Amino acid sequence: MNIAPLHQNDIPDVIALMQLGAPYISPRTPSDYWLYATLFSSTCPLARVGHQLAGAIMAFRSQDTPDDLYLQDVITHPEHRRTGITSALLSHIRDRGRTFGARRLYLTSEPGNSTAHTTWTRLGFTNITGDTTINGISVISHYKGPGKHRAVYEQLL
Ligand SMILES: CC(C)(COP(=O)(O)OP(=O)(O)OC[C@H]1O[C@@H](n2cnc3c(N)ncnc32)[C@H](O)[C@@H]1OP(=O)(O)O)[C@@H](O)C(=O)NCCC(=O)NCCS
Fold this sequence. Notes:
Blueprint: E1 2-5, H1 11-18, H2 30-39, E2 45-49, E3 52-61, E4 68-76, H3 85-99, E5 104-109, H4 114-122, E6 126-127, E7 132-134, E8 137-139, E9 151-156
This protein binds coenzyme A.
Coenzyme A (COA) binds next to β4, α3 and α4.
């Protein structure tokens, strides 16, 4: 497995990969990925196995709260799941975060995404206590706006 920062040449492959993430992940626009590749590449690592794009994390350090690094999209190609791709990408992001002084990783997932819940808890994240519990997952109501309830996870660096 090779891990490298997102580059503009990777954008078509990233969009194709994100299309495999339904129902929890969908592609953003080419302009969004241009922005990520141009301003945030060091926290947007891609994992390739041979020439195939096997996984990606799009993450950003907060300008408003510089201690925080937010993981926006995390995906592994269906043919490569449970092979440690997300674990490896996360390790890369932790290293990058520490070098520029971030203190916390955090992310959200949809309350029904039990695979994500298992993954984040297995990889050392804490499910932040919310105001409701759905199938054992603590959820913060309206976290991302009206009706957008989310499970929120954090990991201190
Ligand atoms: C969630 C997702 C990113 C995990 O990626 P991955 O590369 O398969 O994860 P890893 O191989 O690094 O797994 C790490 C650990 O998480 C747990 N885990 C991951 N997938 C699991 C599953 N389907 N069932 C049970 N445990 C699972 C395991 O403990 C695993 O370690 P192990 O295989 O040694 O037991 C992947 O399933 C995915 O892309 N899902 C679709 C998109 C999505 O929902 N993204 C998250 C949005 S918040």
